[in-house]
Structures are given as C-alpha cells and as structure tokens.
C-alpha cells in the first residue's frame, strides 16, 4: 500500500476551488495498521444514538406488566441486568446486542440530582434537573448543565460538539459533525417540537438543526466519491462544475446584499451565506476514493413520506397511517450513513435522535411488527396509554426497537477493518434515552414513574482510548454525564467536566 | 449574542392618534439597487408618486428579514413554476407554529436547511424543465437553439423578477448569463441543451437567500431609523400577507409603476387580490392556525369534512354573503353533507349537501364545528382545561402560566378513582394550589363538555349513565353559559373576542408576537373595523392601505 504523509486538514483547508482527493485513512496507516504513518493515533469516533422514552411504565414495577389485558409478573425485562460484570444475562431491551455483548458496557443505576424539598429554579442542584420532568431532564442529561425551567433547552454545549471541537478533529473531516433525526414530525395535533427536536447544542440554547431526510443526508455526505472509471467521471465532473457555478453565483451576491441591509439583517443573512459557502466547500472541492472498506453506500432513495398527526391524541384509539413515517427504515438508513461516514473518515462525530424528547411517534406499526401490538404513541406507552398493554414489557419492547438500530451501527463499525483492528476499536458509541424509572421528578414522591431521572442507564460501545467493554457496570447514584464523560475520554477528551458535572466514570476503563 | 429590540418607535413622545405603522428592517439609506430607482433618491420621475414620510403621530413597528415558511415556499413554487408537489413540506424540517408558521424570531440558518434547499432546488428544477408543458408555465420565450443567449437573458430577467420579487439590474443579471455555457458543453453521457442551463438558473434562484427571505431595504425618511418601502417590497408584503405566496405579474407591474406606494394603488391591488383563490385559502390558513385546527386528531376523511364545513362558513361570512365577521361565531346554520349532518345528529340537508339550521340545538358558529371542538383535546378525549386554555389564549388573548413543576401534566387530572371525568377535574378546584389557575380554564371546558372531541353531542361521560354531564360553564369575568352558542354570544358581547382577533391577525401579519407598545395599533384597527360593520375584508383593507403598511423601522441591536 502506498504511504503518504499528506495532512487531511491541509487538504480540506487549502481547497480554493480546486478539486483534490481527500487522503483516505487506509493510505495513511503505518505498516502495522495501528496508527498513522506520519505519527499520531488513528482518528476516534464518537456517536450518540438517542431514544425519547423512559425505562419503565407509570406505577408498574420492573417485573410487572400487562399484555392483551393479562397481568404478568416476570423478571428480565427492565434494562438493568441483575448481576454485574461480564457474566450477566441480557435483558429484553438489550437482546439486539447479543452478538455484540463483548463490545459494549451497560451502565445502570445512575441519577440526575434534584431537590426533593423545593421546585424553585434557584434550588436546582449543580448539574441537576428542574422539577418539571420533560424539559427539566434534558439539559443536565445532554450538557451536564442544570436546568432551571421546563423549556427543552440545553444550557451548555453537548458532548458531541465538545468532541467535534477537539484539536485533533476540527477541520480534519469534510463534515465537522453529523446531526441526524429519524423522527421527522412532532405528530401531536395542535403543538410543535418546541425544542424537543434538539440533541446537539453548540452552546447554551444553540440547538443544532438536524437533517431528517435520509437522501439529503446521503447526498451531503457521499456525492464526492470518485466514480469507477468510464464516462461516470466526466459526468460527475460536469455535475460538480455546474453546481459550483450555481453556488458561486449565490456566493458572489453576498457582499452586495449584505452591504444594503441593516445590521440585524446582516447577521441573519450572513448565517445563510456562511452555510452556502460551507456547502460549496463540502461538495465541490474534494473527491473521495473508495477503498477496501470505504465505499459509497446505496442511495436511500427519495421516497420518505411523512405521516400525519396521530389519531386519538396518541392513546388507545391510535391506528395505522398516522403518527409514523417509517422511523424503522429511516433510523436504519441513517445509522448506515453514520457507519460509512465514520469508516471513510468523512466525519468523526454523529448524533442520531431516533425519536425526539417526549416522542409522540405512533408505536402501533412497530409493536405490531414485533408481534405485540400496542395502541399508543411512544410517550403514552410509558403513561399507560393502551388499556390492554402496559407496564414493563411494552416499554422495554420499544426500547429494544431503538437499541436494534444502535446495534446495527455498532455491528457495522465492528465489521469494518481499519488496519489491524476494527473501526469500533477506535470508537465510543453511546446509546442514551430520555428518562429513567423511579421517583417522579415532578412531585418527588410517586414511585415507579416515567417522569424520573432515577435509575438511568447508558450504553457505551467500542474501545476508543482504551475503554474496556463487555460488562454491566452498576454506577449507582452516579450522574449519567459521568458515564458520558467516560465515553468522551475514550474519544479523546482530556477535560474532566461536561457542564457542571465532573469526572469520567473510571469503570469504563478498568 | 446580540439581542434585538423589537419594541416600536413612537414618532413623538405624546401620541394623540395612531396611524398604523408596519415595519421591517434595514439600514441603509440608498434605494434598492435592483428596483430601478435612483440611488439615494426617490424612485421616479416627476410624474411618479413619492412614498410618504411618516406622520408625526405614527407608531412604527419593526421587523427583520423573514424566511418563507414551508407553506409559503410551496405556494411560491406552485405559482411561479406550476409545481404542485409541495417540495418544501417533503424536504424541509417541520416549521414551528407559535401559533403561526411565520415567527421569524425563531428562524435560523443551519446546514440541515441549506442541504435540504440544495435537494429541493435540484428536485424542483429537474421537474420544471422536464417537459414542454411545464416549461411553458414560466418561460418567457422559446429558445431557437442551445446557445440562444437572447432567450436565456430574457429568462434571467423574467425568473429573476419572479424569484427575487424585484427586477435585477444589468450588472446583477450578467453573472447568471455565464450558466448558458453549460448548454453547449460536450460531455460523454451527458445530454446538454438549453434546458440544462435553465435548470441551473432555477437552482441558483431557489437557493438564493434573497429568494428564501423577504428582505426589505427601502429609502430613509425624515425620521431616523424609519424607512419607506419601495413598490416591490410593498408587493411582497401584500402577497405574502394576503396570498401566502409570491407577487404575481400584475402586482409586479403595479410595483414597477410605483402604484403600490400610494394608498389608492394598494387599495386597487387589494381588491383584485382578494378575488383570487389564494386570498380565500390564506384566510382559511390563518384561521386554522389561530383556532388550532390546522391539525386535529382525526382520520383524514373526517378532517377534510370538518375543514370543508369550516371553510364554507368563513367564506360565506367574509366573501360570498358578507356580514359581520363575528357571525362566524354566532351563525345559526352550518353547511353540511348528509354524512356531516348524521355525524352531528342534525337535520339532513336537501340534495346531499347544503345549509342546515342549528335550531335550538345549543349550537352556533365555529365553536360548534368538529374542527374547532377537536382541537385542544387530550388523552383521546376532550380536556376541559385545554378548551379553557383555547378560549383564554386564542380567543381572549390572555396569558396562562404553565402548571407548576410539581404537577405531572401528562397524567389525567385529579383523583384517578373517581369514575366520572367531571369529578376528576373537580379535584383541581379542591386544591388551593390548582384552583387559582384552573378556575380560569376548567369551567369554560365544563360548559362545552356535552360536545365530544368530534363535535358530537353527548349526555354522559364515556357512555356511563351514572356520569351525566351537567354542561354548565363559566368564563370567569364574562359570565356563565352552557354550550357553544351561549359561549360564543357571551364572548362576542364582551367585546374582548373582537379585540383579540385583531391582535391575532396583526401577530400573523408581523410574523412575531406584538410588543406592548403595539397594543394601540391593534386598538386602532379594531375601532376602524367596528365602524366598517365588523367586516373582515375591511380590516385587511385598512391594514394594507394604511400609510404605515409602506413603512418600516430598523430594530436596534443591543450587545
């Protein structure tokens, strides 16, 4: 294999309109395939896959549920295994990870602090949750900053953006971070997302808009693959040159327009022109050569219809054809895009919000496909929306559905070789969900509630930075951000705080 | 982060009377370079009207460049190119509704948006040039060959005018002409022709920030910070307010002649615009967002039946048999199909569809419609609290504070063991912490409880004979009532509904919440509307023909 010492950042920075090939990682490896020939470690990847649901059902204990109107008592459905260490039994939500058991840690028993004596904003503890659950739980979970209102708004930068900003990552990939969302619509008649659609924040209150269309994400990432010979190269060249002309026409109008408008409008319009410039840079100036592992994936196609709002406000009257946009296929397509973008080193950081915070996606089509039809939206599954199907198993089945996509991503990275190891070996892939299951945050009294920041969990797959997967770690009472900091450390973060929460969980590396 | 002060400027410290004054943004004193006007001066020769300077007692609102909403992009592309496939709805992220889709203060640029617009522009341009029939809808000429520069230049001019909503200067047009080179390029496996370059031209316009935003610049007036819009900027204001779409050729011609800067010119344009189907559709769209029924939790066949019923009443009262606008709340009849009448258990119309009298059913107007009664529901059923919130916030423009953090509003209220819903909700009234707020909301919903989530009358809760619905309600501060007819009559009698409706329309027109300083503008509009027989069309006419519609203010940016 040809060894070159070309710097990716130089290539990405110094484009100036010329089309240059982005050096593939494969070309840059040393003879052992463990590091770059020019020195330095292999790039590390960091991703968060997110589920907008809790871990159990309101007023149902972890071993109790009802299916088809029949109540049952049965262990093994709540996500936390009963034993710790390597020799644990996979619980219902974790079943999709069976073949990957040695590749991830499940960290359980964590909690976000909150005041049990006061619901006042001023009484929220460091890194803690404002007592109104849905909005209140968001900021401390994803940014480590306490929330002081019911708004869905992170009060600080989120972990993914911290990793994207690391010196070793910044400017090294065409896309600084990939922000994707599988659930395209809010589905609850009469209201809007209002912040529930943000998982990545560049700073306090600065939610990053996610891409919700798989084909748009695909084209943004993979247009630049060098075709396999023949006329295709000329065709691609023509397309690139013509699009370059279109975008440069727009770019060239920038100064004239900005000079004419007022200062506040200049700020607003500049933001758009900057994005046009970034688009121009991303799609026109580099080409990507396929390698043994890095290939242009299959086009996910243009047919992604968006479902209308739920019939029956998300509870038992819910049916088919509403409140669902085939999130199953969308999530799969998006996880495949992330996997290939990581393999090709087109980005090193990604978030995939499969469902949004407080998700009202109709689960009837999904649960029916899983053999246990549940007539409710995801939010109401936890709140006993279906009279006949309630409690731990329905909730765990929906969690399992989310984790299946996570497993798909982890598996793709594991199967992809990078020199002497797999891409997963230099990755930290997190699965996070919105809530735990325990004492209700709102009233601080009721037990076994979905509106809870107790009994929270995190899955972290991969071996980046020396992480040692394969175990169930009971991190009782720890903040979930401490586990997140562990994954961040694996991905190269040298700091010891995210927001207000200190200290990576050492157990991930022990 | 810079903060932008959206409050208004008063021209003089003491204000005797208020002329309505609208405003957007901008900041420099030169004329719009592309408007055909004289830089730094007024837009015309000696026989052309000049835009008025603001009167001393005007209140000047401010606004900023407004990005087109999904619905506006789709309508615009349909009107310019004939594309009916709603590409923005398919490809862009869902708009936030507050409750309108056009709140520009929450709009921001993003990679997701730019990438989606790239896809959208390719998708739309490809379809537009695919066939002669679609091309004829927007092309000003037929090309004589792939390198027909005359026709291409004509297309740049014509499409530039439509997409950027103003004429392009010669200097602005020139760069686009370079795209014609692609029409004659010989590339293996690529078919190039004249339409290759038109495709690229469309993509350039559709992705242009100046297409995607309504940018207003205007001309400085004698009042610092206040600018007079040029004709094209006024044309865009008119068309996006009244049609939710781009100015058409006729409006652009009026703009070119500077007709729209005068009140009489706007009045003539207004009369023409209100006769177009888009005028009616936009009024329906406004109401569906205001009254919350833009989406309701029913299957599509039910939703479309409800929408037809509600639109018919709106159009009848506003356009076809004009009467007091507030008849939409007190109308004694509704237009139904046989299926619709059976749904409500009302007398069936003659001939399969027609007007049906409500008689003494207790129903009247929009508040009896399935569309409106379906909105603001919860847990698959009506929510007395949510219906109370609807009346308080949307019809009376009051503010309802969110529940305290300690309340889990995702749980059905009150005592779960109580069999009847009324008893469960009464728990709100037993707890002092809840009562102070819920007494403002729940009693309103109780008065509508006989009407289910689909607007059907019911005597009992969930079919339980032991749970008879009393159906007695109260709008605290206004009066007691039972049923939609009595509620509508008391709201209209209070005068608060009328004042609120005007504020709602102004919010929609401005694309943001009103500031406190703008209340007098709404008050003035309401007074004028009242003196015009409560005509909704007259309200819109006043709004658009007032001198202030052609003015704007630059908001201050605070560090």
Description:
- The complex is a heterodimer of chains A (510) and B (559).
- By secondary structure, chain A is an alpha/beta fold.
- Helix content of chain A is 29%, strand content 12%.
- Chain A has 14 helices and 16 strands.
- Chain A has helices at residues 8-13, 25-28, 133-136, 138-143, 159-164, 214-222, 231-252, 254-260, 263-284, 327-343, 364-369, 378-382, 392-415, 480-490; strands at residues 20-22, 45-51, 64-67, 70-73, 104-110, 178-181, 286-288, 349-353, 390-391, 417-418, 421-422, 427-433, 456-461, 472-474, 497-498, 501-502.
- In chain A, the strands form five sheets. Chain A has a seven-stranded mixed β-sheet, sandwiched between helices.
- In chain A, strand 10 (417-418) and strand 11 (421-422) form a beta hairpin.
- In chain A, helix 7 (231-252) packs antiparallel against helix 9 and helix 10 packs parallel to helix 13.
- The longest helix of chain A has 24 residues, at 392-415.
- Chain A is globular, with a radius of gyration of 23 Å.
- Chain B has 559 residues and is mainly alpha-helical.
- Chain B is built from 23 helices and 15 strands.
- Chain B has helices spanning 70-81, 87-91, 111-130, 132-135, 149-164, 170-177, 194-206, 209-212, 231-242, 249-256, 263-274, 277-290, 300-320, 327-330, 338-344, 370-374, 384-395, 421-430, 432-446, 483-494, 496-510, 519-531, 536-545, and strands at 3-5, 9-10, 59-60, 66-67, 213-214, 219-220, 226-228, 333-337, 353-357, 377-378, 381-382, 473-475, 479-481, 551-553, 556-558.
- A three-stranded antiparallel β-sheet of chain B has the order 6-7-14, with no helix packed on it. In chain B, strands 1-15 form a two-stranded antiparallel ribbon. In chain B, strands 2-3 form a two-stranded antiparallel sheet.
- In chain B, helix 9 runs antiparallel to helix 10 and helix 11 runs antiparallel to helix 23.
- The radius of gyration of chain B is 26 Å and the shape is globular.
- Mean pLDDT of chain B is 89; it is low at 9-46.
- The chains are: A alpha/beta (510), B mainly alpha (559).
């Amino acid at each position: 294999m040809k060894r070159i010492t070309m710097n990716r950042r130089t290539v990405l920075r110094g484009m100036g309109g010329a089309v240059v090939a982005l050096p593939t990682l494969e070309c840059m490896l040393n003879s052992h395939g463990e590091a770059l020939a020019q020195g330095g470690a292999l790039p590390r990847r960091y991703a968060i896959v997110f589920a907008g649901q809790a871990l159990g059902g309101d007023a149902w204990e972890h071993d109790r549920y009802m299916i088809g109107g029949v109540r049952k008592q049965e262990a093994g459905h709540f996500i936390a295994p009963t034993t710790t260490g390597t020799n644990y039994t996979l619980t219902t939500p974790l079943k999709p990870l069976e073949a990957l058991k040695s590749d991830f840690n499940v960290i359980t028993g964590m909690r976000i602090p909150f005041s049990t004596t006061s619901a006042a904003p001023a009484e929220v503890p460091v890194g803690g949750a404002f007592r109104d659950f849905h909005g209140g739980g968001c900021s401390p979970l994803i940014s480590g900053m306490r929330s002081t209102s019911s708004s869905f708004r992170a009060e600080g930068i989120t972990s993914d953006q911290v990793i994207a900003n690391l010196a070793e990552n910044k400017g090294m990939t065409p896309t600084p971070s990939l922000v994707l969302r599988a659930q395209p619509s809010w589905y609850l008649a009469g209201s809007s997302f209002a912040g529930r659609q943000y998982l990545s924040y560049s700073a306090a209150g600065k939610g990053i808009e996610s891409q919700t269309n798989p084909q748009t994400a695909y084209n943004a990432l993979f247009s630049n693959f060098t075709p396999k010979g023949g006329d295709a190269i000329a065709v691609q060249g023509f397309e690139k040159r013509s699009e370059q002309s279109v975008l440069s026409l727009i770019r060239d109008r920038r100064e004239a327009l900005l000079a004419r408008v007022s200062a506040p409008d200049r700020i607003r319009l500049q933001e758009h022109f900057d994005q046009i410039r970034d688009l121009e840079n991303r799609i026109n100036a580099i080409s990507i050569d396929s390698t043994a592992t890095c290939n242009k994936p299959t086009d996910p196609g243009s047919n992604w219809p968006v479902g209308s709002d739920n019939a029956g406000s998300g509870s038992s009257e819910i049916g088919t054809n509403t409140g669902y946009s085939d999130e199953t296929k969308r999530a799969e397509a998006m996880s495949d895009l992330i996997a290939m973008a990581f393999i090709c080193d087109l980005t090193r950081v990604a978030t995939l919000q499969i469902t949004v915070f407080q998700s009202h996606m109709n689960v009837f089509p999904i649960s029916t496909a899983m053999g246990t039809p549940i007539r409710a939206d995801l939010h109401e599954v936890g709140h006993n929306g279906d009279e006949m199907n309630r409690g731990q198993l329905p909730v765990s089945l929906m969690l399992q559905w989310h984790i299946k996509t996570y497993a798909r991503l982890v598996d793709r990275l594991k199967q992809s070789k990078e020199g002497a190891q797999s891409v997963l070996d230099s990755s930290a892939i997190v699965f996070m969900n919105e809530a735990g299951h325990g004492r209700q945050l709102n009233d601080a009294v009721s037990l076994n509630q979905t509106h809870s920041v107790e009994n929270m969990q995190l899955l972290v797959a991969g071996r980046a930075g020396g992480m040692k997967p394969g175990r169930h770690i009971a991190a009782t009472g720890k903040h979930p951000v401490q586990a997140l900091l562990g994954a961040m450390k694996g991905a190269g973060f040298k700091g010891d705080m995210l927001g207000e929460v200190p200290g990576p969980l050492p157990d991930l590396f022990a | 982060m810079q903060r932008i002060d959206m409050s208004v400027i008063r021209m003089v410290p003491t204000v005797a009377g208020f002329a309505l004054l609208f405003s957007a943004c901008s900041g420099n004193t030169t004329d719009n370079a592309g408007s055909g006007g004289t830089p730094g001066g007024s837009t015309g020769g000696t026989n052309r009207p000049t835009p008025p300077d603001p009167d001393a007692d005007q209140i000047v609102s401010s606004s900023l460049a407004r990005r087109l909403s999904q619905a506006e992009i789709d309508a615009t592309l349909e009107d310019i190119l004939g594309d009916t496939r709603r590409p923005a709805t398919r490809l862009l992220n869902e708009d936030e509704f507050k409750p309108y889709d056009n709140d520009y203060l929450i709009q921001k640029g993003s990679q997701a948006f730019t990438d989606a617009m790239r896809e959208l522009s390719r998708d739309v341009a490809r379809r537009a040039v695919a066939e002669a029939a679609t091309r004829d809808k927007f092309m000003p000429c037929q090309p004589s060959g792939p390198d027909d520069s005359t026709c291409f230049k004509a297309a740049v001019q014509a499409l530039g005018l439509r997409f950027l909503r103003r004429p392009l200067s010669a200097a602005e047009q020139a760069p686009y002409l370079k795209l014609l080179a692609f029409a004659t390029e010989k590339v293996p496996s690529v078919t190039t022709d004249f339409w290759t370059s038109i495709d690229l031209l469309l993509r350039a316009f559709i992705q242009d920030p100046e297409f995607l935003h309504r940018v207003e610049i205007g001309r400085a007036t004698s009042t610092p910070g206040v600018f007079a819009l040029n004709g094209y900027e006024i044309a865009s204001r008119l068309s996006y307010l009244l049609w939710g779409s781009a100015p058409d050729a006729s409006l652009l011609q009026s703009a070119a002649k500077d007709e729209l800067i005068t009140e009489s010119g706007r009045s003539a344009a207004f009369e023409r615009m209100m006769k177009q189907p888009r005028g009616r559709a936009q009024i329906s769209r406004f109401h569906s967002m205001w009254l919350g029924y833009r989406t309701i939790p029913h299957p599509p066949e039910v939703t479309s039946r409800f929408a037809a019923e509600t639109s018919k009443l709106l159009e009848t009262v506003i356009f076809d048999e004009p009467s007091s606008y507030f008849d939409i709340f007190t109308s004694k009849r509704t237009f139904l199909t046989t299926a619709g009448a059976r749904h409500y258990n009302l007398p069936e119309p003659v001939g399969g569809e027609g007007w049906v009298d409500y008689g003494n059913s207790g129903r009247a107007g929009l508040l009896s419609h399935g569309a409106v009664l379906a909105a603001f529901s919860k847990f698959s059923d009506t929510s007395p609290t949510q219906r109370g919130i609807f009346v308080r916030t949307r019809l009376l423009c009051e503010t309802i504070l969110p529940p305290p953090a300690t309340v889990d509003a995702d749980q059905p209220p009150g005592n779960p063991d109580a069999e009847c819903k009324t008893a469960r909700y009464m728990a709100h009234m037993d707890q002092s912490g809840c009562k102070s707020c819920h007494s403002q909301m729940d009693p309103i919903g109780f008065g509508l409880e006989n009407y289910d989530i689909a607007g059907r009358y019911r005597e009992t809760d969930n079919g339980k004979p032991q749970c008879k619905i009393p159906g007695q309600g109260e709008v605290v501060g206004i009066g007691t009532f039972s049923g939609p007819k009595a509620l509508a009559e008391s709201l209209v009698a209070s005068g608060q509904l009328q004042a609120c409706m005007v504020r709602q329309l102004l919010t929609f027109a401005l694309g943001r919440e009103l500031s406190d300083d703008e209340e007098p503008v709404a008050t003035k509009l309401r007074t004028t509307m009242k003196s015009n027989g409560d005509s909704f069309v007259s309200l819109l006419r006043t709004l658009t023909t007032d001198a202030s519609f052609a003015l704007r203010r630059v908001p201050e940016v605070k560090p």
